Amino acid sequence: MMKKINIKIIATLMLLMGITFSCSDDFVNVESSAENSEAYFNTEEDYQNALVGAYDLLQTTYLNVLMGEIASDNTLSGGENATDVIGIQEVDNMTHTPLNAQLRNIWGWMFSGINRANFILEFQDKTDFTGKEAVLAQARFLRAYYYFELVKWFGDVPLIVDKRFQFGSQFSVDRTPKAAVFAQMELDLIYAAANLPYVQVEVGRVTKGAAQALLGKAYLYQDKFEEAAAVLDNLVANGPYDLVLDYNTIFEHAGENNIESVFEVQYTELEGAGFGCLQCSEGNVAVGFSGVRNYTGPDFTSGFSFNVPVQEVVDAFEDGDLRKEVAILDIQTWAADTGATFGAGYEDTGFFNRKYIPRIRGADAQGDRNLTNPNNYRAIRFADVLLMASEAHNRSLAANDSKALVYLNRVRERAFGNSDNNITATGSALTELIYKERRVELVGEGHRFFDLVRTGKAKEEIENNVDITTDGKTEVAKSFVVGKHEVFPIPSIEIQLTGNRWEQNYGY
Questions:
Q1: Dihedral pair phi/psi, residue 307, rounded to 5°
Q2: Cβ distance 272 to 368 under 8 Å?
Q3: How confident is the model at residue 130 (pLDDT cuts 50, 70, 90)?
Q4: Interhelix angle for 101-122 vs 132-154, to 10°?
Q5: Which structural domain, as residue segments, surrounds residue 356?
Q6: What is the residue-wise DSSP string for 86-142?
Q7: Structural domains of the chain, count
Q8: What is the residue-wise DSSP string for 278-305?
Q9: 241: CB partners within 8 A, 6+ apart
Q10: Would residue 390 count as lying in a domain?
Q11: pLDDT exceeds 80 at position 69
Q12: Is this model's pTM higher than 0.70 or not?
């Protein structure tokens, strides 16, 4: 596992991008001295330390995963009550505004990651050393990863390449059309794939496979199906990845960084955090948020009962699908079988995201157990790669449904333990089945909302979602407005800091 180390990187982290940390942690310290900047990047160690700083922001993507799931038709916000973390409640109900604090965090944290990657690339020619191409390749992957998250959430965003966002840039930097941002991502990922190995000595570092997989996903999000099919075919044929035989093991501690993990965000329990500085946590904050409220019993520990799956997603699993019990914890059944006790939270459905809820840890576990869970986030799994490749072949102009079925059924055979449930459909019927397979394979992993948006199915599926109210009655939870809710609002403060030069996303 890549160890988190305390480093002092001389960098200017721009106020425009919401990058202000109020606590002491191992994030980049802010110094604006040009003289100090010139004194850095004189050794390989300087570059490696700066690279660790760029990796560090990956841990803040817990919020992207949590909110991406809640925005979809898979889960409800939950929590203690209707005002518990109001920004999450707003995203669940599709009532979010430019004042939403959690959306501003996503904006600021992702741009902080970009600035750290750009800091390395700004000085990429300063000092030569053996293996520098691999350092630059990792930095370019990370820049692409953070930009991919921003485009998913906000659409057009400011694009700066190979230099830092400096205070004052807000008066000259405009939002860049997302097509141009995607084009830069493609260049970064092609470079990363060409200069990285499939296997790294230090687990957790970016690999050639991670770059190929994210490149394929970027193509898919642009409906470049032929390009996606080509790069994903190459990855499947030449990469060292395979499906883990036992789906039940993937999300346990012993299953971290396994043969199915193409890219995994590393978390530890070694350092703590507080609610005043959630980005300070070295642990996966989303895990504690998604745990069962007031739980006592085997295997798991308590959490805050956010991100609760709805009956609809539970029913999406076919009979005999072995993934259902791994993905969904039916707390009533579990309690009856084990004697566990628990409390009901707001919007209680009786279900929890079993992939990412707190597990019992040893007595020597450090930090706030609700905020420092060491569960790694499986950001890109090989199953996701196979399903992306299946979709790319099925949706290409010269569709290759035979190949699409090979990839799809490879995932399904693992899910059912046999080939009796293999699919034979073609054309548009196959497309719908691939979408359905992505939902049940990847439920709880933060992909669903963005899959619905990119395939044009968001309004149809999200408005069919049902909310359970506190009085036991049911009502439609959200109203998805086409042309508005495909992206989220630019935080108001960011627009104000430009002198109101930037236009807000439509409808906000």
A1: 65, 50
A2: yes
A3: very high
A4: 150
A5: 278-375
A6: HHHHHHHHT---TT-HHHHHHHHHHHHHHHHHHHHHHTTTS---TTHHHHHHHHHHH
A7: 1
A8: GGG-SS-HHHHHTSEET-BSSSB-EE--
A9: 209, 235, 259, 260, 261, 262, 382, 385
A10: no
A11: yes
A12: yes
> Is 282 a domain residue?
yes
Q: Bridge partners of 300?
A: 359
Q: Is 20 exposed, middle or buried (0-12, 13-18, 19+ CB in 10 A)?
A: exposed
Which residue type sits at 418? N
The average pLDDT across 324-336 equals 98
Round to whole Å and give the CA distance between 480 and 425: 30
Give the pLDDT of residue 26.
Answer: 29
Instruction: Give the C-alpha distances (Å, rounded to integers) separating 319 from 323, 355, 416.
Output: 10, 20, 9
Element at 214 (helix H, strand E): helix 208-221
DSSP state of 11: B
CA–CA separation, 93 and 74 (whole Å): 13
User: Token match 């965003």: residue?
Assistant: 157
pLDDT digits (tens, 9 = 90+) for 466-502: 555 545 444 445 789 999 999 999 999 999 999 999 9
Q: Is residue 452 part of a domain?
A: no
Asked if residue 175 belongs to a domain, the reply is no
